[in-house]
Amino acid sequence: MKQLVLLGGGYGNMRVLLRLLPNQLPEDVSITLIDRNPYHSLKTEYYALAAGTISDHHVRVSFPEHARLSYVYGEISKIDTKNKLVQLQDQDAVPYDDLVIGLGCEDKYHNVPGADEFTYSIQTIDKSRKTYQTLNNLPAGSIVGIVGAGLSGIELASELRESRSDLKIKLFDRGTRILNAFPERLSSYVHGWFEENNVEIVNNSNITKVEPNTLHNHEEQIYCDAIVWTAGIQPTRVVREMDAEKDSSGRVVISKYHNLPDDEHVYVVGDCASLPQAPSAQLAEGQAEQIVQILLKRWKNEPLPEELPKIKLKGILGSLGKKHGFGLVNERSITGRVARLLKSGVLWMYKYHNG
Description:
Layout: E1 2-7, H1 11-20, E2 29-35, E3 40-41, H2 46-51, E4 60-61, E5 69-73, E6 76-80, E7 85-88, E8 91-95, E9 98-101, E10 105-107, H3 115-118, H4 125-136, E11 143-147, H5 151-163, E12 168-172, H6 184-196, E13 199-202, E14 207-211, E15 214-217, E16 220-223, E17 226-229, E18 233-235, H7 237-240, E19 259-260, E20 263-268, H8 281-299, E21 315-320, E22 324-329, E23 332-336, H9 337-354
Parallel strand pairs: 1-2, 1-9, 2-5, 9-20, 11-12, 11-17, 12-13
Antiparallel strand pairs: 3-4, 6-7, 7-8, 10-18, 14-15, 15-16, 19-20, 21-22, 22-23
Helix pairs in contact: 1-8
């Protein structure tokens, strides 16, 4: 019996399971999924969990069940590709014949002193819960600093505004305008929403140091009752420590078939993989679709295609609270209620098909 081991129950490996089960999995292959949690989490919705506008069960999806699918819950300490073993803390190692690494990412602090120690996070469900407890226990009139005005920072700031209208929210953005990589129409719409809802955007910011309740922006010291960091990501520590070639961002270099260049039995999916597109749930799922095709062909000893099609991304959708949103779909900007409804529909469809 061949052992396919999936590391991490994120978007990529959930799609692998969805495509292999129940009828595509060969009779001589079994699957083991290793994760620290006994459920899949909707990471794209952690901002709402942290803000307190949804409850914990809204971001959890049950893993599928199958006779040849088993689960190991624990903390991965090392990926030993030479001996084809996954080392776990305080548990026996798990051997594999084929491995799909989808362990996601963690915060990247860009060597800013104190950022790791004195800020909160929304990178894991556990950290999002702690951020929720802190933000929703703040007294009225407290100041919340959010460092990083990418999609996560924008969605957290807007959702927190709806959750706690009494808080003073400061959103720190390195750019001259918010969402400066997107069309100006989108940028202006989001900026206008924040102005109307009394969220302060601090443009051209450069956080050089974080101390307890204090952000150093250039030479200025800014008091905050709580600080949340959403200013960059990197692959998880276990992946960064792998004996494999990495790009400048610490992501694993892969072949056109999504496996290590020198090991066709180790695939990398999602935030851990070096790809030309920015990491996203869509990209991880697109990769997973192709990885399943490659696995099935290799298991049957069939020739691989000369080239795989380029992964097509449908666009990006972001929320501004529960009633407004923004997005870029097929290179077309959309704003307002339509964008928010689209995002809600995509989320509902995902939970419906995976739950």
